[in-house]
Write a structure and sequence with these properties.
115 residues, mainly beta, 9-stranded antiparallel sheet, two-stranded antiparallel sheet, 45% strand, globular
Length: 115
């Protein structure tokens, strides 16, 4: 597994990525400063500058709190803070290594991802 880091202000959250071609494509885009927004009261989303190649990805997945995923139809990352049901087009990328709840009150306007 590879590790990337989500940084919000002075706080950092490690994320363990699966070893897949699409996670390698994400890592190739890092570092990235992204504007994250709340979506559906269950996830924070941010749009990547370049879509990930998801040809080898499963059709969808169930997201759990702490999961980092990619929603292929919209081309966005999603970091879940609530469990959700199955979504077609949602691709599991990895899992936060820590408690995401303590990050929810921080300013996600310019959160960054890095290796």
């Amino acid at each position: 597994m590879s590790t990337i880091v989500l940084t919000i202000g002075a706080q950092s959250l490690p994320i363990q990525l699966l070893e897949r071609p699409y996670t390698q494509a994400l890592m190739a885009q890092l570092p990235l400063a992204l504007s994250w927004e709340d979506f559906a009261a269950s996830e924070k989303i941010a749009y990547l500058p370049t879509p990930l190649d998801t040809r080898l990805a499963p059709d969808g997945c169930d997201a759990k709190a702490g999961d980092l995923a990619y929603y292929a139809p919209w081309g966005n990352l999603a970091l879940f803070y609530q469990d959700t049901g199955y979504a077609r087009g949602l691709i599991h990328l990895g899992k936060c290594d820590g408690d995401i709840d303590r990050f929810l009150t921080l300013d996600w306007e310019r959160a960054s991802l890095s290796i």
